Amino acid sequence: MAGEKILIVEDDYILAADLCDVVSSLGYETSGIADSFETAQHLAPFSTIALVDVNLRDGATGPRIAQYLANDFGIAVVMVTGSPEALETNLSKVIGLISKPVHPALIRSVLDYLKSVGEGGSGLPPAEMRLFA
Predict the structure, then answer these.
(1) pLDDT tens digits for 80-112?
(2) Got the DSSP string for 30-93?
(3) Domains within the chain, CATH numbers bracketed
(4) 20 to 30 A Cα–Cα from 103, which one of 2, 19, 110, 111?
């Protein structure tokens, strides 16, 4: 998918590598894997979409990273978490969330939806994705 660069914000190396493999197998390019706010800051300028975990190496900084990426860089952000009930929904400009474990078909649907929205389309979000208003 030309032009889209996916930033994976996840501190569990195995999960991050697996997600990276899934993204690559779907034809998308990754801009990198970030495990902290600092790493995400470094990779943000090279990213158009971000999949962000809530709890990272430096604590529950995922929501703050998501806001930063969406507000400062205009990156399409989706939270990816094992604890969706713990996540506040007042994350302005963050598109939504999906729950772990994530399957390749869901990642495909999420990325296709984000790409469509980014191109001005109105695509339908996957049923498993909770949108933030």
Answers:
(1) 988 777 776 678 889 999 999 889 999 999 999
(2) EEEEESSHHHHHHHGGG-SEEEE-SSBTTBS-HHHHHHHHHHHH--EEEEEES-GGGS-S--TT
(3) 5-131 (3.40.50.2300)
(4) 2
